[in-house]
User: Which sequence fits this backbone?
């Protein structure tokens, strides 16, 4: 077996059976022999031609051989595969995707029996390879071809998901995968169709990120904050801002905090982007994540090539009571806000139940605060840079039992921006999923877990073809300390009820097996609501690029962000991967 | 008809004027939950509570004696 064929299958964890190119070629020579679309293949290879160096070269070689009169039925499939693998040695696996994309197209265009196509696809991870197809391939895949692919009978995934978290992580029961029965999604068929759709969408990268400091930024308004973050992101991208085709704004409640509505054009104008479509997205504390999610979908779908996402919030300058009143609007106005159920109160109810159900302790909640304050002390853009002790955290001013002031994120101003693009880049958005759950606490089946997070996480892992154990660092939504513990469980990093002991053990510290909130998290970095989800992306990108200074983690290939809205009614989970 | 139930979770809210207790109550006979204010003695998780007469616009409960 050649090295490349084996590598490919291993990377994808056997999503469609774990086969590799050589196995496919050797085992399915008969199926390949059914193909008769030589002319189509030659035509397609010409389309790749000089435009795509990787795909074009490999496919063109195949095309040339076929144009010389070689019939697929006569081709030594194993030799052909080997040739292609040789062609991509030292490069990404793009040509594999191109090659099989062409094969799929041949089948589709020639109206061949989809059973044959399904059989070929079923054997190996060809659809995974198709993810790597060039944009040109995507463009020329017809609806008919996609329909045929959808009709193919695929076997279920068999991801192996080896555990990569050592040390502290091993002391606890590991969650190798995330399971969440969800009748609404229609089971595995729906999931396979979703993966297929993703295969034919554009890949999304991050061109640049930028953010302001988070904190009490007196005298600076929404326009100025957003402008600073966007200029930083545009500068980091090193590209012409005229390439930006749309601006998506994450903001929770500027009208209540500042009297300013209609943020789309205001923010776009702050970056000199008047004229492009500019829209505000609101999903409570997940507003920034939701703006990012929609931008990623737009780029994936080919609607835009470049979208600038900006999250911004100006919260300070209000009384605590007024801030609490505004934030309560993220809950259920009828059953919660009118009772005086502030957000600290809602998360206190959640914490109390978690403590009752699992034995989680106040000290374990405090450990989250201590860790995140420690991390923030090394983050020059953080709101609270004061190191605290467990004793200080426990002795904090009561806010809502069992939560004290040190369990709560601060009220902050700030902005963050991310330029998402279909152009290749150093960091790829390999997954971005948003889900929802019940708005009111009383309507949730359980309050010690957020179904929206579990649902979004499962979709994100599916999109990325990854397991929780493959995530190397995470920025999660710790609006309150209990929220970080629940996030650990909902994201599949640890079993339900074990997060408190896990965090207390140091596993989520910068030097731990899974560093969490190395930025300081919402708890200490700050929580300017609309900016939070976008800021998490900025922080993760900083880590993946190795630019986090004292807070830099050792393993920086794959990271995850989780952005929560309300008491878990919206959740956005994003997975980023370093490409170089 | 006054409702009864078991406290599923509870908290006492500070810093918003006089401290007050909120409880998430699992109502008797159906498993439906309701967020309520608790008056009088503090109710603990697992404790039985019942609705009380109130002129307020939200449900008020108290510990069952």
Assistant:
């Amino acid at each position: 077996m050649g090295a490349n064929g084996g590598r490919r299958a291993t990377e994808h964890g056997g999503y469609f059976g774990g086969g590799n190119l050589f196995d496919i070629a050797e085992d399915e020579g008969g199926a390949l022999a059914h193909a008769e679309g030589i002319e189509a293949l030659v035509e397609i290879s010409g389309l790749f031609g000089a435009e795509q160096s990787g795909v074009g070269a490999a496919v063109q070689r195949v095309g040339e051989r076929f144009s010389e009169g070689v019939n697929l039925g006569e081709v030594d499939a194993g030799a052909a595969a080997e040739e292609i693998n040789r062609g991509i040695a030292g490069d990404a696996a793009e040509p594999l995707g191109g090659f099989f994309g062409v094969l799929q197209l041949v089948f589709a265009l020639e109206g061949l029996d989809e059973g044959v196509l399904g059989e070929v696809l079923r054997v190996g991870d060809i659809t995974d390879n198709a993810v790597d197809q060039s944009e040109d391939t995507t463009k020329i895949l017809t609806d008919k071809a996609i329909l045929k692919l959808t009709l193919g009978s695929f076997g279920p995934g068999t991801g192996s998901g080896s555990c990569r978290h050592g040390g502290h992580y091993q002391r606890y029961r590991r969650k190798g995968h995330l399971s969440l029965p969800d009748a609404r999604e229609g089971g595995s068929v729906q999931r396979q169709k979703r993966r297929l759709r993703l295969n034919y969408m554009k890949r999304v990268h991050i061109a640049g990120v930028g953010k302001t400091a988070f904190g009490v930024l007196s005298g600076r308004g929404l326009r100025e904050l957003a402008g600073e973050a966007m200029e930083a992101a545009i500068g980091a991208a090193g590209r012409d801002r005229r390439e930006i085709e749309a601006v998506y704004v994450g903001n929770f409640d500027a009208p209540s905090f500042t009297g300013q509505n209609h943020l789309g054009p205001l923010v776009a104008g702050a970056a000199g982007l008047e004229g492009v479509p500019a829209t505000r997205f609101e999903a409570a504390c997940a507003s920034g994540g939701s703006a990012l999610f929609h931008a990623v979908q737009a780029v994936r779908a080919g609607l835009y090539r470049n979208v600038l996402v900006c999250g911004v919030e100006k919260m300070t300058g209000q009384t605590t009571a007024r801030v609490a009143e505004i934030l309560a609007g993220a809950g259920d106005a009828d059953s919660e806000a009118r009772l005086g159920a502030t957000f600290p109160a809602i998360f206190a109810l959640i914490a109390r139940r978690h403590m009752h159900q699992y034995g989680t302790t106040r000290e374990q909640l405090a450990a989250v605060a201590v860790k995140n304050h420690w991390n923030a002390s090394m983050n020059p853009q953080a709101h609270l840079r004061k190191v605290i002790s467990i004793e200080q955290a426990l002795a904090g001013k009561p806010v809502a039992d069992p939560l004290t002031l040190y369990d709560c994120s601060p009220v902050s101003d700030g902005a963050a921006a991310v330029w998402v693009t279909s152009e290749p880049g150093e960091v790829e958005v390999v997954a971005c999923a948003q889900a929802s759950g019940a708005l009111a606490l009383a309507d949730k089946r359980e309050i010690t877990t957020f179904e929206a997070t579990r649902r979004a996480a499962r979709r994100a892992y599916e999109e990325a073809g990854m397991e929780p154990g493959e995530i190397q660092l995470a920025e999660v939504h710790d609006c309150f300390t209990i929220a970080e513990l629940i996030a650990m469980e909902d994201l599949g990093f640890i079993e339900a009820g074990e997060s408190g002991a896990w965090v207390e053990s140091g596993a989520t510290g910068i030097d731990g097996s899974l560093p969490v909130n190395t930025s300081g998290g919402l708890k200490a970095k700050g929580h300017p609501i609309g900016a939070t989800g976008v800021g998490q992306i900025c922080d993760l990108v900083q880590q993946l690029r190795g630019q986090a200074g004292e807070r830099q983690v050792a393993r920086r290939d794959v990271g995850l962000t989780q952005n929560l809205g309300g008491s878990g009614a919206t959740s956005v989970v994003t997975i980023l991967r370093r490409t170089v | 008809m006054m409702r009864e139930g078991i406290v599923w979770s509870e908290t006492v809210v500070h810093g918003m004027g006089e401290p007050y207790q909120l409880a998430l109550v699992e109502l008797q006979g159906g498993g439906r939950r309701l967020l309520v204010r608790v008056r009088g003695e503090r109710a603990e998780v697992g404790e039985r509570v019942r609705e009380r007469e109130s002129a307020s616009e939200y449900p008020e409960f108290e510990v069952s004696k």
Q: What stands out?
A: The radius of gyration of chain A is 25 Å. The domain at 183-188+200-318+409-578 of chain A is CATH 3.40.47.10 (Peroxisomal Thiolase; Chain A, domain 1). The mean pLDDT of chain A is 77. Residues 94-109 of chain A form the longest helix (16 residues).
